[in-house]
Amino acid sequence: MPLSSPLSVPLSLKTFLARLCEQAERYDEMVTYMKEVANLGGELTVDERNLLSVAYKNVVGTRRASWRIISSIEQKEDSKGSEKHVAIISQYRQKIEAELERVCQDVLDVLDQSLIPKAESGESKVFYHKMKGDYHRYLAEFASGNKRKVAATAAHEAYKNATDVAQTELTPTHPIRLGLALNFSVFYYEILNSPDRACHLAKQAFDDAIAELDSLSEESYRDSTLIMQLLRDNLTLWTSSDGAEPETTQPSEPKDDKPAEASEGAEGAAEGAADAPAAEEPKKEEEAAAGPS
After folding, report:
1. Which of 94, 118, 142 finishes a domain?
2. Is residue 113 located within the same domain as residue 232?
3. Which of 49, 109, 210, 268 has the most CB atoms in a 10 Å sphere around its CB?
4. Peptide bond before residue 277 is cis, with ω within 30 degrees of 0
5. How many domains does the chain contain in total?
């Protein structure tokens, strides 16, 4: 059975092959298999949902990291007045941006055409709308002019839709609701340049979760407290940058000099290093469990 022909693989084996691709770190192939699963019809299981999320996050994550490195080099060369080098670097950066746009649009199409329309549970709805917000935000990171404005508006709308559902159907300590608040606040800080709004959103989510921490289930405790730590780290970073003291209880030292951002899942959020500039929790393992299954 050729791995290059996903359509010929039975559904029962697609998720197995996707896990195999994950172990081999062949994320482009992992995306191919999980996109087939997503487009087959019906709501994805929690396991399938997380595999899809892991696949896309890794595919886009490597390109986001490449874009940051190349952009930094371009700025340094520009400051040296190396016009020839800047021209070459600019062309290469645009190549990476084209790849980023293709990947982001691909996952957004899957979300809009297959996943969001079929989502039935509140957890699924929040997960997918949050994911939609994330990928529009990734587009806004490198876009400029009207394209950036369009991407930012779409991201805000998706995050707002996710928040509306989360506030009525998920508890304040739910890992997906906390991850949403974390990423939404990063969006306000980095894309909309609104630190006050970012801090307010992050602090509100943290305080609401603290108030209900005693009722947190054992299976969700690790996931939720990890994301709460990231919220607190961001508040510490953002408020210290403004010369103010964070108002959350027991402030901790930030793990990085850039804010932390939650990805589609929660488990493993503290495993591995953050991947700037949104200093997200790691691209891979943390997405393997989007809250209690």
Report:
1. 118
2. no
3. 49
4. yes
5. 2
Contact 151, 143 (CB under 8 A): yes
Query: Does the predicted model carry a pTM greater than 0.85?
Result: no
How far is Cα of residue 285 from the mean position of the Cα atoms in its chain? Answer: 13
Is residue 137 within 8 A of residue 151, CB to CB? The reply is yes
Give the C-alpha separation, 147 to 215, whole Å.
44
The pLDDT tens digits along the chain (293 residues) read 445 455 567 877 999 999 999 999 999 999 999 999 999 878 899 999 999 999 999 999 999 999 999 999 999 999 999 999 999 999 999 999 999 999 999 999 999 999 999 999 999 999 999 999 999 999 999 999 999 999 999 999 999 999 999 999 999 999 999 999 999 999 999 999 999 999 999 999 999 999 998 878 777 888 999 999 999 999 999 998 654 544 444 333 333 334 555 554 443 333 222 333 444 443 333 333 333 33
> Does 102 share its domain with 143?
no
Range of the domain at 40: 1-118
Judge whether 266 and 223 are in contact, CB under 8 Å: yes
One domain for residues 106 and 139: no
CA angle 217, 186, 27 (to 5 degrees): 75
Residue 227: CATH number of its domain: 1.20.190.20
